[in-house]
Structure formats: structure tokens, C-alpha cells
Design goal:
Blueprint: H1 2-10, H2 16-39, H3 50-70, H4 82-105, H5 117-155, E1 160-165, H6 169-177, E2 184-192, E3 200-201, E4 204-209, H7 212-222, E5 226-229, H8 232-237, H9 242-249, E6 252-255, E7 262-263, E8 266-267, E9 273-274, H10 290-297, E10 301-305, H11 310-320, E11 326-331, H12 334-347, E12 353-357, H13 363-373, E13 377-380, H14 387-392, H15 394-414, E14 419-423, H16 434-455, E15 463-468, E16 471-473, H17 479-488, E17 493-495, E18 501-502, E19 504-506, H18 507-520, E20 525-529, E21 535-536, H19 537-547, E22 558-560, E23 580-582, E24 588-591, H20 598-613, H21 617-627
Parallel strand pairs: 1-2, 1-5, 2-4, 5-6, 10-11, 10-13, 11-12, 13-14, 14-15, 15-20, 16-19, 17-22
Antiparallel strand pairs: 3-4, 6-9, 7-8, 18-21, 20-24, 23-24
């Protein structure tokens, strides 16, 4: 109860009237003291009580006026700065000027002028000096008392000792922000380099280190539990330096959010967070021109299929900020769509959005949406994406990913949509599984339809663009959320193979690139994204365990379970110069792919849909492999349908 009462007391501000009363008492006392000092040379000043009393009254009135004009009592003392000290001095100056004016204009204060000019000068200078020093001293005393009380409260808690990385303005500001933190105690600054002479910044010592061993010894000597970064860019730059040393040594790595971080008009709580795994992927986020994207989508009716999924819902969030006329969100997952609807009602009340439950496998439901709202731009993100599951359910993969994409594309042409943007995957490149092949088949149909429109074999105005990218961090069912869950349960963390690698990007980054590609296309192109270096999944697992403050292999075991059906050991590099052509964006390229005649592609999709609905799996997979000759199954029962000399694509 005692600590609780002290905590409540420290969170309150001292009343401004109390501060004004203290300042007035100090100012008047200073005037009385200064008059007493001068009276040592002029004993007649206290011959009667009238002159001292009038002097004190004039000091009271003048001080009140000066303090009120400068409003120094309104300042929060615990956050006082040099600017507040300047305002106090200004108030003292006003006080002295008013007292001088009163002594010249009021006959009752005429006794002051019986003094020698040097004594009058001494009186006013002494009054000013005593008043200023007294008021400043009172504030220092209040700060000392506050800090002592605050310190006693903080020391009663177990706070983590951390070093702030860097010595720049943001690092110093971060240290000051955490000065009274109940969770973290900053014990100094950390910078890389040879040991130099002692430096201190804002009362904290600057510590130097040169290598990992030196950092470990320094942290142990200071009893520090981690390193705190003021900027995410510093953390990214040190992902193979300080961060790796800390995670290997079991030390925490933290990042402070920006002080001005605002989400949807609300300032978010500025709490230090652990480094997220996407902070450590070793590449900068791909930059795009948001102005061109806004201009492309402002005022238009947009349809997003798969709108309740990871990519689709983020596309909707970003489109909501572009001033679209109407946003139609189409998905067959009821609960996720309900959650997206609630989110949009709260976060985007000014956006005209329509949630629609529907399935891309049902043309009549798609026809209703196109007939009712006539979308101008369609983002097709609806798909089945999990490789092992689709290997076990190939007919459903064909119905959704191939026939569903055909249905959406056909409705775009029928109702005159300006553009359709299809979200594809790097697994469509030389596919080794059913999911990847179905996405390649969808690419083939969409591209061939666009070519048929361009050459006049079919009538329509729609332009088609396909975007390929790799794994998306944090998407539903992806490796990062799964690793987090396994670590929270105490392990083990399961990895399919010690050498398996993948390319990664964040969900917002992927969606921005999809929209950027939509503004660049001239139609019938497949855009691929340069995703940087691939990441070894086993290293990712170790890093996540370390960032959780645990030791890989000791606190949390890593188990290798073997490649799953259809899973590749290494994903294809998408943006090689041999397989792609450049665009105006240095991280977006155009894939060089075989062009299929529309009649051939359409006939293949019709046949595949018929076989999948009849659940004639062997015939369906054989047709998939004939249509996409580079489709060679890996770790799958469908390897039996691969032959050394694949049959040519089935003529249609």
C-alpha cells in the first residue's frame, strides 16, 4: 500500500497554485533580505516599519505580475529545461522593473532614494540575484526530492540493465526517455571501435568494443542483459555483428519504436520491443512510388478475391488509403471475412467497402459480383497455397487455382474490367509440386487470354498482369508463426531439412510490389521480384530461439523431419538476367516464359476441371505434366508419372 501510494503521488503534477505560492514566498523573502543587507550601511531604513512593509508589498505585487506574465507556474517542474530557467529570469527582470517604477511613482517609497546611488544599485542587483537564485534553488530542490522518491520506487523493482547502441541524437534522446523507465535501466552507450579515452554523454559512459569476445566481456562486466537500438536501420546494419554476438551469447536485442509512431490517428504506446525476425533478414525494404499507385487507384471500384487471407486483407488495407470509390472484398472463409469486416468498420469508417461471401469456383456467384458492382481493377489473390496439403488434395488445387482463376479472368473480360492482377508464386517456376503447377497453369491461361485479346482472337479490353514472389513473412500457416508457437510451447522446433532455404518478404512489402507492378504493365506480362539472398530455415529457427532468450539445442531442440511431399530444397532464383527482362524499377523484372495459344490453354483448363470434378487423379496429373513439361514431382507419389522423355503438350 505504501508503494502504491508513492506511485500515485509521483504520477501527479504539483499544483500550479502551490508553485506560484512558493515562487512568491521566495521572491518576497529575497526582497526583504536584500533590504536588510543594505540597511547595514543605512540604519534609518528601519527607523519605522512603513518603508520595509511598503517595500515588501511592492515586491509581492511586482513578483506576482512578473511570474504571472511569464506563466512560470504552469511549467511541469519534473520536465524543466533551460528554456524554463530563462522564463524565470525574465519574470525576475519584470519584477525589478516594476519595483523600480513603483519606487519612482509612489511617495511612500521615497525613502529608498535617500540612499547613495551605489546602495540603490546594490539593493536592486541583490534583490534580483537573490530572487533568481532562490526560485531556481527551490526548483532544484523539488527535482532532487522527486528523483529521490522516484529512485527509491524504481530500485524496488527488478529492471533490465541495457546499453543503448550508438551516440547520435536519437540514442541520447532514447536514453533520456528511459531515464524513469520501470522496466529498463540504461547503463551506458555502446559503439564499435578501439578503446578510446573515457567519454560520457548525459551522465552515461560511452563503452567501446572491437569484436564479439570484447562485447561479451563488456556485457558481463556491466551486468547488462541486452543491447537497445534507437533505430531499426542500425539493427539491420548490425544483423551480422552485434545482433549475432548477442543472440549467440544469450543476450537480448531490443528496438525502440519511433517517438512519433501513429497508427490510424492514435499515438501508440512507446514500449521497447524485441527485435522481430523480419528485422534480421539482411536486406532493405524494396522502395516504390506510392504517388503513382494512388493516382492509379483513386476513385475506382476495386475487387479483391481472397480478401480475408494474408495477402488479400493487406491489399485491402493499403487500397483503403488510396481514395478508392468502392472496395469489394470477396472470400469464401466466413470467420476471417467477419474479422476483416469488423476491422474495416473500426479503422476505415470512411471507406465504401462491401464484404461478399463467395467462391471463385462458382461462376454464377462471380457473375453476380461483376454484374452488380462492375469492378474496374481486380486483384486475384484467392488460392490454395500449402504445398503438402495440395499434394494430398490435387483435385481441389486444380479447381481453385486453375478453374477459379479462369472464372475470374473470364468475368473480367465479359464485364470490361480495365485490369486484372493475379498473385502467383515462385513455386510456379519449374514446379515440383501440385500447388506450384496449378499456379503455373493459371499463369498460362491468364497470359494466353490477354494475348488473344491483343491479337483480336477474342474481344475485350482487359489487360492482365501476373506477379510472382516468394514466401511471405507472417502469412497464415507460414514458418515464422509456426516457429513462434513451437518456441512458446517449449519446443522442439521442427525444420524439414538442415540445408533448406527460402526467399522472404514482408506482407506489406509484397502488396506494395503487387500494386506497383499493376501500374507498370502494358498487359500480358509476368512480373517477378528481386527478393535478395535466400535464408537458411535452420538458421532462422536458431535466431528466433536466441531472440526469445533461449539457447538453441539446449533450452529448445531443433528436429529435422524430412522434406514434405512436393517440397523443394532450394527455391528458384526468380530475377536472373537469363530468365527475365528489366523494367524501370531495379527490383522488378519481367519473366521470359513460353507463350501458349489461347485455344490450347483454354482446352487444357476445361479438361483439367472435368477430370478434377470427377476425381480422376492419375489422368489429371498426367495432363498437368504434359501441359507444363517442366513439372517434375519431388518427394511425391506423382513421381511415377514423370518419364525421361515427357510427352509433348496435349494438342487441343
Amino acid at each position: 500500500m505504501k508503494k502504491q501510494g508513492l506511485r500515485q503521488f509521483l504520477t501527479r503534477y504539483l499544483s500550479s497554485w502551490v508553485v506560484l505560492g512558493i515562487d512568491l514566498s521566495v521572491a518576497v523573502g529575497a526582497s526583504a533580505l536584500s533590504l536588510s543587507v543594505v540597511s547595514l550601511w543605512h540604519h534609518t531604513l528601519f527607523a519605522s516599519v512603513s518603508l520595509p512593509l511598503l517595500w515588501v508589498m511592492s515586491s509581492l505585487l511586482s513578483s506576482l505580475a512578473g511570474l504571472w506574465i511569464c506563466r512560470v507556474h504552469r511549467s511541469v517542474i519534473r520536465h524543466s529545461t533551460l528554456r524554463d530557467a530563462g522564463r524565470l529570469c525574465s519574470a525576475v527582470g519584470i519584477k525589478e522593473a516594476l519595483m523600480l517604477a513603483l519606487s519612482l511613482s509612489l511617495p511612500w517609497l521615497g525613502g529608498i532614494w535617500t540612499l547613495h546611488p551605489s546602495q540603490i544599485t546594490l539593493l536592486f542587483l541583490l534583490d534580483a540575484a537573490l530572487t533568481a537564485s532562490g526560485v531556481l534553488a527551490s526548483r532544484v530542490m523539488m527535482l532532487v526530492i522527486y528523483d529521490r522518491l522516484k529512485g527509491s520506487l524504481l530500485h524496488s523493482r527488478k529492471r533490465q540493465r541495457v546499453l543503448v547502441y550508438g551516440t547520435g541524437d536519437k540514442s541520447v534522446a532514447l536514453m533520456q526517455r528511459l531515464a524513469q523507465s520501470p522496466h529498463y535501466q540504461v547503463c551506458g552507450f555502446l559503439t564499435r571501435g578501439p578503446v578510446q579515452r573515457d567519454h560520457t554523454i548525459a551522465g552515461r559512459r560511452v563503452h567501446y568494443f572491437w569484436d564479439g569476445d570484447g562485447l561479451t566481456r563488456l556485457m558481463r562486466r556491466l551486468d547488462a542483459s541486452g543491447v537497445l537500438f534507437a533505430r531499426e536501420s542500425d539493427a539491420k546494419a548490425e544483423h551480422d555483428g552485434i545482433i549475432r554476438h548477442c543472440t549467440d551469447s544469450g543476450l537480448r536485442v531490443l528496438i525502440a519504436p519511433p517517438i512519433d509512431e501513429v497508427v490510424d490517428g492514435r499515438v501508440m504506446r512507446n514500449s521497447v520491443r524485441d527485435v522481430k525476425i523480419d528485422d534480421l533478414l539482411g536486406r532493405d525494404e524494396i522502395k516504390i512510388s506510392m504517388d503513382e499507385i494512388r493516382a492509379e487507384f483513386r476513385g475506382r471500384t476495386i475487387l479483391v478475391t481472397g480478401a480475408a487471407g494474408s495477402i488479400g486483407s493487406e491489399l485491402c488495407r493499403q487500397l483503403a488509403g488510396f481514395g478508392v470509390s468502392k472496395l469489394v472484398m470477396f472470400d469464401n472463409a466466413e470467420t476471417p471475412m467477419h474479422n476483416v469486416r469488423l476491422e474495416f468498420e473500426e479503422r476505415y469508417p470512411d471507406v465504401d467497402f462491401v464484404p461478399v461471401i463467395g467462391d471463385v469456383r462458382i461462376p454464377a456467384r462471380l457473375d453476380y459480383v461483376f454484374r452488380k458492382w462492375h469492378p474496374e481493377i481486380v486483384f486475384h489473390a484467392a488460392a490454395y497455397k500449402h504445398v503438402p496439403l495440395m499434394e494430398e488434395n490435387p483435385c481441389e488445387a486444380v479447381l481453385v487455382n486453375v478453374a477459379g482463376s479462369r472464372n475470374v479472368a473470364d468475368k473480367c473480360v465479359e464485364y470490361g474490367a480495365r485490369k486484372m492482377v493475379m498473385v502467383s508464386t515462385d513455386k510456379a517456376v519449374n514446379p515440383t509440386n501440385i500447388m506450384g503447377c496449378t499456379k503455373r497453369l493459371a499463369e498460362i491461361y491468364v497470359q494466353s487470354l490477354g494475348l488473344a485479346l491483343r491479337t483480336g482472337r477474342r474481344q475485350g479490353v482487359t489487360r492482365f498482369v501476373t506477379t510472382r514472389f516468394g514466401n511471405v513473412l507472417g502469412s497464415n500457416g507460414s514458418v515464422i508463426p509456426r516457429f513462434r508457437q513451437q518456441i512458446e510451447r517449449g519446443g522442439p522446433v521442427t525444420v524439414t531439412h538442415p540445408d533448406i532455404t527460402r526467399f522472404f518478404m514482408t506482407i506489406p512489402e509484397a502488396c506494395r510490389l503487387v500494386m506497383e507492378a499493376a501500374t507498370m504493365t502494358t498487359g500480358d506480362q509476368i512480373f517477378v521480384f528481386d527478393m535478395g539472398e535466400s535464408v537458411r530455415i535452420a538458421d532462422l529457427a536458431r535466431r528466433m530461439i536466441s531472440l526469445a532468450g533461449l539457447r538453441p539445442g539446449e533450452d529448445i531442440a531443433i528436429e529435422y523431419t524430412g522434406l514434405r511431399p512436393g517440397e523443394k530444397l532450394y527455391e528458384e532464383v526468380l530475377a536472373t538476367e537469363e530468365d527475365t527482362m528489366p523494367t524501370d524499377h531495379d527490383r522488378i523484372r519481367i519473366a521470359r516464359v513460353r507463350e501458349y495459344p489461347y485455344e490450347e490453354a483454354s482446352g487444357a483448363v476445361d479438361a483439367l476441371e472435368e477430370l478434377s470434378r470427377a476425381v480422376r487423379i492419375p489422368e489429371m496429373v498426367r495432363l498437368m505434366k504434359r501441359t507444363v513439361p517442366e513439372f517434375l514431382s519431388k518427394n511425391s507419389p506423382f513421381e511415377q508419372f514423370d518419364t525421361p522423355n515427357q510427352d509433348p503438350p496435349m494438342p487441343m
